[in-house]
Design brief:
Elements lengths: L11 E3 H9 L5 H11 L6 E3 H15 L26 H5 L10 H13 L6 E3 H9 L5 H11 L6 E3 H15 L33 H9 L16
Antiparallel strand pairs: 1-2, 3-4
Helix pairs in contact: 2-3, 5-8, 7-8
Length: 233
Amino acid sequence: FSSQVDSANAGRVLASDAAVFLKKSGLTDLVLGKIWDLADTDGKGILNKQEFFVALRLVACAQNGLDVSLSSLNLPVPPPRFTDTGSPLLLSGTASSDVPWAVKLEDKTKYDAIFDSLNPVNGLLSGDKVKPVLLNSKLPVDILGRVWELSDIDHDGMLDRDEFAVAMFLVYCALEKEPVPMSLPAALVPPSKRKPVSVPGAMPLIPSSTSTKESHQSLPPVGILAAKTPLTQ
């Protein structure tokens, strides 16, 4: 707590410091804003130690597919996961290759058959082709939107065979009344997407602590909390 976010050792965390730290959870700004609202009970834009622990617990809930609400605080969840890469794709970065894929082989065979029946082009299905399948589930549109966002792992507006399997898996979870997670759990990232993609010009993930710390100092200010708290620093 003190070394990572409470730099002044005052027993409290400012919105700006907390935002940079919470960003490392890989959750969306929308979810992090909701977590902040629930944790910052008096709306002062500052968290004390107790409130900060509430925020961390809510991060863990969101990462494990539970609702971000105070009622989730009593549920057993693994500790929250944070990364130092500063990358929003962090869950695919931390999904170690030895975590078994949540999509079982027999299910994958069924999903592949549906995939092939939709006439993929170059092994990819466009959103237009996937949409009717998703709508066919009769799930609420906002849930289907989240399913699409989570399954289009490389954000190219198309689903390949593995991404389509993730989409189908999430749809069936939702039909079983299981909440669709806010961010993709490591076990759901297809093994084919787990290797760190080396994009030319991408920042290499150097494990030395100095480089990651410096990269954080240069991060642009995070906008999620600005609307609520004027950050007069």
